[in-house]
Amino acid sequence: MQVVAIDCIGEMCPIPIIKAEKQLQNLQTGDELHIKTDHSCTMQAVVNHFQRKMGYPSSSEEIDYGIWNIKIRKQVKK
What we know:
About 35% of the residues lie in helices and about 30% in strands.
């Protein structure tokens, strides 16, 4: 399993979603994409987008005050 991280500090939606979609195209099934963001609305939008639209398991964790790490695991679409 490969883990790829992208830094989206200071970026508002839809930029993190666009960056994540591009990066996920290069990943294999089972790989994880980690996104760092400092906007709670971006964190919620990214997790919802990839769970609902793509069906990828996604979660977020506040790793510091106001900083979130979002994890998206690429899997085969159902």
